[in-house]
Amino acid sequence: MSNVDAAEIRHFSSLASRWWDPRGEMAALHHINPARVRYIENAVGGLRGKRVVDVGCGGGILTEALAVRGATAVGIDLAEASLEVARLHGLESGIKCEYRCIASEALADEAPASFDVVCCLEMLEHVPDPASVIAACAKLVKPGGDVVFSTINRNPKSYALMIVGAELIAGLVPRGTHEYAKFIRPSELEAWARAAGLTAVELRGMRYNPLLKSASIGNDMDVNYLMHCRRDAA
Q1: Binding residue positions
Q2: Is the residue at 1 inside a domain?
Q3: Using one digit for the tens of pLDDT, what is the confidence trace for 140-150?
Q4: pLDDT single digits (tens) 176-211
Q5: 164: CATH
Q6: CA geometry: angle 138, 221, 59, nearest 5 deg
Q7: Gyration radius of the chain over CA positions
Q8: Residue 203 lies in domain
Q9: Quick check: pTM over 0.70?
């Protein structure tokens, strides 16, 4: 696939063995995950019995949480090392998920309109062409189904907090995880979603508190934010 940044794949592959260490380099992801899952569950009207795909699943932190809520969860990623960790953790936890090393675009061609819910969280800012991934997500979801995106806004505040603060000073996120030019404004995300046939239902901010080791959903979209979209039922 052309929509792949080899440096990003190498970066996340190098972190594979630490995905499930709640006190390690991926700790922030563990801290924000409960808030993300609650938001998704409320936005889509419950997860039980629904078929869900987690696009850019990494080590499966979100994928497993979706399965615990009753979803039939599939995680896809292009970092095979991360997927192996996800599969191994699934064996240890007893939580059944399916993991595949496949691009969202390829899966959309293979299995269009086959998921009730599509999640693409903290992934769009890591690909060369986010609009292509958004179009694939729209193709993957069933008519009337839900798509939830999350990413990082592009402005001086997000640069100061996510790159200078979180990566370079506090070490909350591994260095090199983010590139400011790839951050996405809500208006850009909404435009790409609309072009793909999705309607934006809700836009919410997500604030992370490293001292409390938790996240909350609110109205501040200056840094992290989520967008809930729906595909036309027609």
Answers
A1: 36, 56, 77, 121
A2: no
A3: 999 999 999 99
A4: 888 999 999 999 999 999 999 999 999 999 999 988
A5: 3.40.50.150
A6: 55
A7: 16
A8: 6-231
A9: yes
In the chain, the number of structural domains is 1
Please report, rounded to a whole number, the percentage of residues in the chain having pLDDT higher than 90.
82
218 in any annotated domain = yes
CA atoms within 13 A on the CB side of 182: 18
Burial class (CB in 10 A: 0-12, 13-18, 19+), 233: exposed
- Provide the 8-state DSSP code for 128: S
> Under DSSP, is residue 233 helix (H, G, I), strand (E, B) or coil?
coil
What residues are designated binding site for S-adenosyl-L-methionine?
A: 36, 56, 77, 121
Whether residue 60 lies inside any domain: the answer is yes
Cα(183)–Cα(225) distance, rounded to whole angstroms? 11
Judge whether 56 and 19 are in contact, CB under 8 Å. no
How many residues would you count in the chain? 234
Q: How far apart are the first and last CA of the chain?
A: 30
